[in-house]
Predict the structure.
Amino acid sequence: MKDRRPLHELGELQRQVMEILWDLEEGGVHEVRRALPGNPAYTTVLSVLQKLEKAGWVKHRKEGRSHVFSAARSRESEGRTSVISILDRVFSGKPKQLFQHMLEADRLDESDLKELSRMIAAKRKELGHES
């Protein structure tokens, strides 16, 4: 695995392919291609899958004459890695600044705020800081 770029540094098509593989759990070139917007060429999708495999993002197994691809990295671990990378590079490792920007950007609706409150309360309890 030579290329350890985080998810947010992959190209748009590469990220889309990863999202599809995470949703499908596994699929051949045709399945991935059908799920992509814009009807890309078979060879384009195959090339993206091969590059992602070379970079350690994707693995495959043979099924007859076909290759069945699946994600080699979980969505959760890669999301966590990307967030930490962005937090360190953009916000000097300060989570409060990241959340402040999220709140100011109006990207959170009422259900997001309730879920975040629940998660914060659970973390406080886990840390022994119940309030």
Q: What stands out?
A: The first strand starts at residue 58 and ends at 63.
